[in-house]
Known about the structure:
Helices cover 41% and strands 12% of the residues.
Amino acid sequence: MLVVHPSLRLTMLVTPSTKPRVASELASGLLAHLSRPTAATGDVVIDRFQVLEVTSPDWAAPVAWTPEIMHIEAMDYVKALPVFLKALYGQGEGVNKFEGVPATFIMYDLFQSFIPQLSRQVFAELDRPVPYLLAFGPCNASAFWGTVVSAEKGGVLDNAIKRVAADEAAGLTGDELWAKQAYSADGEVKKVPGLPAKFDYEWHPLLGTIQMPGPVLKQVCSMLSAVQDKDTTAFVLPFVRELETEAAEASEAETGKELIMAGVQFPEPVWAGVKLDATTGSDDDRRVMAFLDEMEAKHGKDSVLYISFGSMFYPLGRPELVTWLIESLVEARMPFLFAHATTLAPADPALLAKIDAHADGCQVKFAPQWAVLEHDAVGFFLSHCGSNSSAEAVLARVPLVAMPFAADQGEYASLWTDVYGVCITLKQVFTFKNGNDRFHTLYDGTEIVGTEAAVKHEAAETWAALRGEQGKQMRANMDALRAKVEKSYREGQSRKAMLGFERFF
């Protein structure tokens, strides 16, 4: 936005847990151009940006981050935010470097469902009208639709809210009702616009392997109030309208508000194919890149499978799934790089030791993901199919193997597998909420057995497919998909959406 709009100034109000990640991204070599004067005007883009850490005087930095601590952090953010918002309008010296330039719009994460109500209170005290409130949803339009529609259409939030209300009417109480009812399924067919029909439980296929506390799920479900709030102006999604027009239009019809599909926004050097030099990073970064160089020399281009489930997802309830998949890679003699970045639990030490002893395997806590995906040795990406990982895979032209857990990942996996043919979704790993005793048959007729033998058999077939004609076709499909995404970024609906932000300031 700062590059597209030279008159824009942006302030990011962050929590303590997110500030280091923001700082790390800003320090990336791919963003170095933002700190240099532009050739046309001499403008230094980064000078029009500031990051403020929002904390109350009572906040104490934790020793370690857990879901419970992050919930406490979120509550502190709510308490402290009014002070920082007022500082952006002249109340509070030394906080805001853009003094005298009042904010005209607020873009907030939909998980921060309290923002509309809090904004009304703050701006009433400032005797100002509420500015434009743009709700950012970190997902695609398909998942957005599946989340916000009515329970009758399979809407996740409305379904949970109504189930909890029924429990409370029956005399039950407590936040754990949300853990019980959120993402519940009845075995009904759910048709998401633009995607093939599936049973409702299929859209969150590994939900039974992760732990989500009741208070967190309660906050997630409160998003529906922000979606329906009269002061929420529009929704901003980081995905491409041309790739899911039907879902975008259906979402607008459902909410009565505009979906601003901003597209895949990466720095210009990424689009230009500039490779990031990870050898200047940490010791682990250098070790990873040396391993990939070795695998390219030994096995050739596109030979390595990169495995990562991001920092927030891992099959904690069934860690053996990862063990079985890696054992199958060893059996198939397929080189692999395993990044286990989750902060929720350590990876199995026995598994890591097994990988360390394997000549064609490498494990690391954090991998320099963009540099990895851009490396010529990397041919495929086993991913949870989160928003960022999906976008990076497309830009790097790396086909996917999907192991989606929850959130928007089921919709992404279906889009990549069923619509665009750039992905194979592993099914025998599926572990639905409360296990597979009740639900174990997919809409396409697949029976989920889920045993070690079943998982390894499917995995072996998948690795063989990747190395064969299907893998070549997936790569060609990914090239075509990447071209569509870039066209949208440069001259299509994504570019139009980015230019359109000007109406808010």
